[in-house]
Design brief:
This protein is α/β, with parallel strands linked by helices. The protein has two domains: 189 residues, Rossmann fold (3-Layer(aba) Sandwich); 171 residues, Rossmann fold (3-Layer(aba) Sandwich). It is built from 14 helices and 13 strands. α2 runs parallel beside α3 and α6 crosses α9.
Length: 382
């Protein structure tokens, strides 16, 4: 494999969240094998548009890399044009862009369109979501216009592969599993000490990440009374509520499970992520819809099994009965049955061994090879 020249566009520190972490790690692994320039953002979202408290990462142990060029302002087209000119002058073999939400349609359309017209570079999209969650018809139209500029696409699930091929039947698509986030501190967290700090004990469930409607938290809450009839548990809900927190609190009160639910309504800095996973026995992702998810990979990094729903990539990376359970979406009874089975059958040790044995599927090197194949225009090997 010859050394490639690659231009990577995407977020990095000081911006927070999974896409920022992912793109930063992708840059590190790409530059281990190729010459890479990383064009990032100096402003990501306008404050009035971002639904959370802030898009700035509050972590002390931030995930950052030297060499990122923070030049793109999401609301200043002059910076899009300047970035495109700089990439054209760089003359790369490929431009790699993440795709996850249609807000980026104008910016990416300008940059990718100019590069495609005035350079030899192949445009490769890493699709975290082909069609964003809770998207409108306008979102889908904008997505098709942007992705129509792509020469190759890397996806993380069969569902996203199908979504893309429905939109662009001739697309060249490569699937690679979402790699493990190998930057969090996986070792050094004492389970008992983490629980003491959190004021919890006994059997512990963890729901982790931004709380949005499609993530199905209401179905996990609805499962709690059935679970509590058979096994004592504490549910940790850890992540920033983007809207309707009061509605969830009403459900907790109506179900009478307040003593068994602990809510941490905030973005968790990188250095504190391990505390919650170390304290948990079982991670639950009751998503109603999904394509990819980094939470499973964080859970696996801490060797925590997962209850996930049969949506998106989740049934491909959670092995039912081996590394967790796969249940139907929007089915509280199925969630309850899985949780009860896990604790009553004492399967933690067995599942942890299986998680350790299967980590080879989620390597960054495997993902980089997929991008290389997209750049070369060869058939992607699974």
């Amino acid at each position: 494999m010859r050394k490639l020249k690659i231009a990577l566009i995407g977020p990095t520190y000081p911006f927070r969240g999974g896409i920022s972490h992912y793109t930063t790690l992708l840059y590190e692994h790409l530059k281990n094998r190729h010459a890479v320039r990383f064009f990032s953002f100096k402003r990501q979202y306008p404050k009035w548009l971002f639904p959370g408290k802030s898009d700035i990462d509050p972590s002390q142990a931030h995930i950052s890399v030297p060499g990122a060029e923070r030049v793109i302002d999401s609301v200043n087209p002059a910076t899009w044009l300047k970035t495109a000119r700089e990439i054209i002058k760089y003359d790369p073999d490929a431009v790699v862009l993440p795709w996850w939400v249609s807000f980026w349609a104008p910016q990416f359309m300008v940059m990718a369109g100019l590069v495609k017209r005035y350079s030899r570079a192949r445009i490769v999209f890493v699709c975290h979501n082909v069609v964003a969650h809770e998207s409108t018809l306008l979102d889908k139209i904008a997505t098709r216009m942007v992705l129509g500029l792509g020469d190759g696409f890397l996806v993380h699930s069969d569902e996203d592969r199908q979504n893309l091929l429905q939109m662009l039947p001739e697309a060249k698509v490569c699937k690679r599993f979402h790699p493990t986030y190998d930057v969090f501190q996986f070792a050094g967290f004492d389970r008992d000490e983490c629980r003491r700090q959190l004021g919890i004990s006994g059997n512990v469930l963890l729901f982790f990440g931004f709380v949005r409607e499609y993530k199905g938290l209401k179905y996990l809450l609805a499962a709690m009374p059935e679970i509590l009839q058979q096994v004592p548990v504490t549910l940790l809900v850890v992540g920033e509520f983007w809207k309707d927190k009061a509605g969830y609190l009403d459900v907790i009160r109506e179900l009478g499970i307040g003593d068994n639910v602990t809510i941490v309504d905030e973005y968790i800095p990188n250095e504190a992520v391990g505390k919650y996973f170390a304290a948990a026995d079982l991670v639950v992702q009751p998503y109603v819809s999904a394509t990819g998810s980094g939470v499973v990979q964080v859970a696996y990094g801490f060797e925590r099994p997962v209850v996930a729903t049969d949506v998106g990539c989740l049934p491909e990376i959670v092995e039912h009965g081996r590394t967790g359970y796969v249940v139907p979406p929007a089915d509280s009874q199925a969630i309850a049955d899985a949780v009860v089975s896990f604790f009553k059958e004492d399967r933690a040790g067995e599942f942890q061994d299986n998680i350790q044995a299967g980590q080879y599927r989620f390597s960054w090197d495997n993902l980089v090879v997929g991008i290389e194949e997209m750049v070369q225009g060869v058939r992607c090997r699974v």
